[in-house]
Amino acid sequence: MNARLLIRAGFVDKLMAGVYTFLPLGLRVLKKIENIVREEMDKAGGQEILMPALQPKENWEVTGRWKSFDALFKLKTRSGADYALGPTHEETIYPLLKHYVSSYKDLPTYLYQIQTKFR
Fold it and tell me: What stretches in the chain show pLDDT beneath 50?
């Protein structure tokens, strides 16, 4: 949908190129869409989780993608640990599943999340 129409209709306000504030009307619409997705995912047996936006370098090194992805934001802690705002959560979900799925009896496992991505 055209951003100008959403601005004119009072759904969003433009902060800068590609960055918008959801106004009350726009946020209500967004929440309704999220709830429809949740209802359908729950009907299919899905379970909602919320994974962290900040992800450790180690998870990305396992897949060999730390050097190849261009993170919007990376940081190093005082202790020297590296983190990045994750543009996706594959590197976060694999260790989680490895920890909680230990047998074929734990399958199928349907997990989903609804959250902001940093791309």
Answer: none
